[in-house]
TrEMBL record, chain A:
This is Spermidine/putrescine import ATP-binding protein PotA. The gene is potA. One of its GO terms (cellular component) is ATP-binding cassette (ABC) transporter complex. It catalyses: ATP + H2O + polyamine-[polyamine-binding protein]Side 1 = ADP + phosphate + polyamineSide 2 + [polyamine-binding protein]Side 1. GO terms for molecular function: ABC-type polyamine transporter activity; ATP binding; ATP hydrolysis activity. Residues 11-242 form the ABC transporter domain. SMART domains: AAA. Keywords: ATP-binding, Cell membrane, Membrane, Nucleotide-binding, Translocase, Transport. PROSITE patterns: ABC_TRANSPORTER_1, ABC_TRANSPORTER_2. Belongs to the ABC transporter superfamily. Spermidine/putrescine importer (TC 3.A.1.11.1) family. Pfam families: ABC_tran, TOBE_2. It comes from Marivita hallyeonensis. The complex is composed of two ATP-binding proteins (PotA), two transmembrane proteins (PotB and PotC) and a solute-binding protein (PotD).
UniProtKB/TrEMBL annotation, chain B:
The keyword Membrane applies. SUPFAM superfamilies: MetI-like. GO terms for biological process: transmembrane transport. Residues 1-27 are annotated as: Disordered. Belongs to the binding-protein-dependent transport system permease family. CysTW subfamily. It is found in: Cell membrane. It is a multi-pass membrane protein. This is Putative spermidine/putrescine transport system permease protein. Residues 344-552 form the ABC transmembrane type-1 domain. CDD domains: TM_PBP2 (cd06261). Keywords: Cell membrane, Membrane, Transmembrane, Transmembrane helix, Transport. The keyword DNA-binding does not apply.
Amino acid sequence: MPDTSHHDAFVEFERVQKSYDGIQLVVKDLNLTMPKGEFLTMLGPSGSGKTTCLMMLAGFETATHGDIRLDGRPINNIPPHKRGIGMVFQNYALFPHMTISENLSFPLEVRKIGKSDREAKVKRALDMVEMGAFGGRRPAQLSGGQQQRIALARALVFEPELVLMDEPLGALDKQLREKMQFEITHLAHRLGITVVYVTHDQTEALTMSDRVAVFDDGRIQQLAPPDELYEKPQNSFVAQFIGENNTLEGTIREMNGDRCVVQLNNGDLIDAMPVNVSQVGERTRVSIRPERVEFNKDRLQEGVHTLKAEVLEFIYMGDIFRTRLKVAGNDEFVIKTRNAPDQVRLEPGAQIEIGWLPEDCRALDAPN
Amino acid sequence: MSDATAEPDKISGPTPDNALRAGDRADDGPVLAADGTPLKRSLSRALRAQKLRALALIAPLLIFVLVSFIAPIFDMLFRSVENQIVGETLPRTVVALADYDATSDELPRDEVFEAAYYDIFIAAERKEHTRLGSRLNYEQTGSSSLFRKSGRGIDDIGEVYQDQFEDLDENWDEARPWAELMGDPDWIAAQDAWGGEGRMPRFELRDGISDLLPRTAETYQIFARFMQTEEGESPLEEEPWTVVHTALYQDLLAGDVSGYTGPRADMLVAADALVESPGFETVVFRDAFEEIDEDWLNPEIWQTIKTYSPTYTSGYFLNSIDMQKTPEGPALRDEDERIYGLLFQRTLWMSMIITFSCILLGYPIAYLLSNLPMRTANLLMILVLLPFWTSLLVRTSAWKVMLQQQGVINDVLVWLGMVADDGRLVMINNQFGTIVAMTHILLPFMILPMYSVMSTIPPSYVRAAKSLGATNWTTFWRVYFPQSVPGIGAGSILVFILSIGYYITPEIVGGTSGIFISNRIAYHISSSLNWGLAAALGTILLVVVLVLYWAYDRIVGIDNVKLGG
Ligand SMILES: Nc1ncnc2c1ncn2[C@@H]1O[C@H](COP(=O)(O)OP(=O)(O)OP(=O)(O)O)[C@@H](O)[C@H]1O
Ligand SMILES: [Mg+2]
């Protein structure tokens, strides 16, 4: 059990559970510790409880069990408007009957900040998101991206230390989304605020965050920095959910330290690295990233196991080639190769042999 | 900053709009469709078919609305100013009164009495004098009986002449000689030949008789044609009305018949001699009218006739705002005769109270409805709609049971000892009863629009406001409430307009102090039969509603009114 009472812990969830109907737990045993200034993303499929966690933190839902602490203080009994947490909503929630400036000065007004101070802060916040000229407009007169900026500025204008964002970029087109992703991370780091960001777009999660919490079924499946999440998934859900992934199912035949031998369902043997399997004879699902698969014999290590494969399809994708293979009865096995001058383009129908470094092939739990 | 709005006009490619534009841009000859006709024409042909189809689809409803709604409204608008009855019933009198000074407090000249004699006589034969009497009775009480009485007594004048002519020559009391004197020989022949089948040959005056005996010719023609069309009798067999004898006397007195050589010349010449003779008894019209009823010597009736002689009148409208037409122009009625101003004020004021009560009672319900989970909200919605499925009459009567002095509420209060048994509260047949019952009846009309607006306010606004630090009250007042205003507006305008025209409920529970203007309109439509006044009151009500609607559009904007999702 990790030490949850970090002295630099800013946001803490301790054994938090949540049920809406008293029958089903939507959040099951959530433990999370965030230091100040961290950009943490909650990533997960729809219905996995991300918004619920955010709402508990913001105070719009109460935890059925467990403690939520902000800067060391338990906040379970503090009403939302006293928590001082900035929030950005998916649909922006800009007040339609107020101008942009009025929207921004609203949090300052309710904090009884003087008029001149207010105006200065509103101007600063607008400039921060490069929307200085739009103060007099109404939200309906702005484009989606502009509204998004305003929503961000409004969540930041009263200088909260913690900002929650629930799929803030969900409604934007791809290009604008990428631009805003950059701007939001940039701003968050510049201001040094702590951000909890919710998304179900994994690219967004990987590019923006310091750490990503992968949610499924009301639990955090893995909490790790993006690279670790991608390269060292802790279980088969995370492996499947993050990035593209090839899986083969089999049984553990040998265990020796950080290596094991897996016998696939068709009898072939491969080398793998055990992650959350320990017993010989246990069922396992091995996962290999498409770009880590090698079919050039010269580059493979001596003595490793290789598998026979049949090329089914070759897809040219510009920067990379994507080849679909049939391996050990699985015809959705994909490999990706870089489009380099010396790269081989595999012909459909060709019989090849493939292999990989044992540490790239992770033996994970086999969901039943 | 990329602004992603695609202006419709910038869309290129084959859209219908662009095709039209291409058609307009006819610099290098018209754009041709595939079959060679100009594109514009083939497009408009295609669109015309569509429009015709649309028109055919709405036609039944359109016709229904036109016939049952628009036409009655225009008829009502017309009735509120229409006043042809005076000019049509008393045409000669109206002409004769042209130079009568209605402000002078004098009786009109003798010619006016003479004209009135002819008019009233003919109207009485046609049985139109009582209608005119009722019409003038709206403006001056007593007119109705005056005209009814005059219709009965007016025969006396002509009988004086009729008797004298008859004494001179029996033929003056016979149908045939009169017809030969006045009628065209061709017509007499045709009328004789008429066998009783089909239409009678229309009476025609003999050539030259109009010049010789103008009044007699005119009145006889009216008599003859009336007999033919209304009574279905032949003028050859009916002795004329006594008014014709009066006319004959006047014509003989004024003109000279000595040169006359046509049929019955001897009869006419003898009559002329009789009229000139000193012993001939005559009647002064004014005295005769006085004999019928002394009221005819009161200038007021003549002033009234003069004031209401034009075809169109503002009289009904003046009446509806407690004024009246006087010879000196419009003037306010006496204090104790003013009633409509008070009624209008009361209607508007009570409608405002009802609207306000509906807002107060409806807002929390609508708020609750829109914030409850779907299933509970639906259940509650059924409760809100329940009154719609009960007859209006039943609900209003139920209020009677509840509110009356021996009713449920009073019984409970007495039982609780909160009021004494002899001090039971009066809650019905007054304004209080009307307000309570109408608030209840109109409440759904307030709740539904409010609910539909509120349910479109996303909960994230409230959450956003709270996350920004606003207390519950600030959140409600500064964020939620402003967004629910269109719902309040829509509900208010609906309830207000419905209530200022409400009839049944005030009628049943309003007593005398709680009735609305519409009850008065109904009274004039069905009891007093003063449709003109009812129409004027209705028109004013319609205008008030339109003005309200316009004001609302200016202030809130009709676009902001949301009645549904
Ligand atoms: N107010 C509520 N009442 C009852 N159940 C709820 C409520 N809100 C959410 N749930 C349920 O809780 C579960 C988690 O919902 P939540 O909104 O937290 O998911 P999410 O991870 O945010 O999903 P998404 O990516 O679709 O937004 C879902 O099964 C949902 O049906
Ligand atoms: Mg969500």
